[in-house]
Amino acid sequence: MSSKKNPEKTQRKRMSLAMQIFIALILAIIAGLLMQKYSDFAVSYIKPFGTIFLNLVKFIVGPIVLFSIMSGVISLKDIRKVESIGGITVVYYFCTTAVATVIGLVIANLFHGFFPVLETSSLTYEAPAATSPMDVIVNIFPSNFLAPITEANMLQVIVMALLIGFAVILIGESASAAVNGINRWNDIFMKVMEMILKLSPLGVFALLCPVVAENGAKVIGSLAMVLLAAYIGYLLHAIVVYSLTVRTLGGLSPIEFFKGMMPAILFAFSSASSVGTLPLNMECTEELGASKEVSSFVLPLGATINMDGTAIYQGVCAIFIASCYGIHLTLSQMVKIVLTATLASVGTAGVPGAGMIMLAMVLASVGLPIDGIALVAGVDRIFDMGRTTLNITGDASCAIIVSNFLRKKK
Ligand code: ASP
Fold first, then answer.
1. Residue 345 has what pLDDT?
2. Which H helix or E strand runs over 74?
């Protein structure tokens, strides 16, 4: 993280962390498959270690987002520059998410004939009050100075960081002590994060093993086709959309991009948390050439508002649920799904399971029964692992593109 590091040493260390995470992932799958009969044990005694790890990550993420965005904004020194980076970022995020939903809908329609018709009469899903699109917008703005951090409401933390960062720029010279303070605290929190990240192989194992032990058998059942449709959508979006944007707008070979992203990808897959993957994502993108000032602004924003994988999942599940209820969606309903899923992705928190809660909003927008969520809830974690992986890869592609744009502008 600090600029004085020996690059060769960093490379070796990071390579080995990626390798460790990969080994942990393979071991977790093997152990999970072997423990299918003892899934209670895995859930009671292995999962808690994953929870501890995830808690530590969540604990550090608030301060990291707050300080890295403040320090990123301040280092840009110019509010216009922040606005132009913010503008490109938000447009890219919205466009790719809308494309993602379309991909999800197309794939699900192609798979339509293969979806099983599941029994829906006895379904009940304790749906949280479906969020309205306007709520999503209102919830962006904090009403209290501490609540955004204590409630880990990242969108509000971002707004806070932007306001404070802008104020520091406007005050100018006389705020230099504060600038120094913000930068030093940023270094300190980054260090804490580095310490926590050393535990990630252990965390990955403890998070993934119980999931495999619990879901291994279920997946082979009736939900295999919907899962397959979602994963084909995730893969297609990554291979077509990101490869294209990274190459044409980011000036980076897609192979190099995906290779460099591997540690973050593996971590996101196991943890199912974009926000939790943020620290590792920052490391990977910076090593791929994204500038620190860009990644410290674009990635926290992306981990909060940009969820292409979640959008694909919502498109696929909407069609699947409709087909289980024997409902045929019209083209205008599909367009509505694209719009609501894009907005829902802004309101989805970067934590495990959040996308499923926002699915209620998408279903409600086209009058589909919210109880239908119960059909896919049992394997949500498996959907989530893939959608989170795509979510963070999308954020990283944006960091590469915006950095390239700024380099060219200089
Ligand atoms: N788990 C996802 C993420 O962190 C959000 C979701 O549930 O879709 O990106």
1. 86
2. helix 47-76
